[in-house]
Amino acid sequence: MSHEKGSILCMDDEEMIRITIGDFLEDCDYTVYLAKDGEEGLEIFREKAPDLLLVDLRMPKTNGFQVLSAVAEESPQTPVIVISGTGVLRDAIEAIRLGAWNYITKPIEDMAFLEHSVKEALEKSRLQR
Predict the structure, then answer these.
(1) Taking a C-beta distance cutoff of 8 angstroms, is the pair 62, 37 a contact?
(2) In the prediction, which pLDDT does 129 show?
């Protein structure tokens, strides 16, 4: 199957969340790559150059803040959406300061909101290019 909408890398240390988000986005016709932590995620990011990243903040090895910093330095035009369960305002502010395009809290009550956020970020990214 051809995935015309683009490619998305989802980094989350919680396997069920990673799989649920991945399956949902594949059903929406995106190519999806999954990573269990930021270290694996950055390897996939550098190898596959996905169109968009979904990043959890709290992960082992390399956390979401470190991922945001690396992506901002290496590929600032790549949209990153943070999906975090912390719900801490300070974390959201720091994520945006580091270059996150959006911040979504877990659990995601309505997956249509995630799909809308992804579409919006990809469209904005295409327009900027």
Answers:
(1) yes
(2) 83
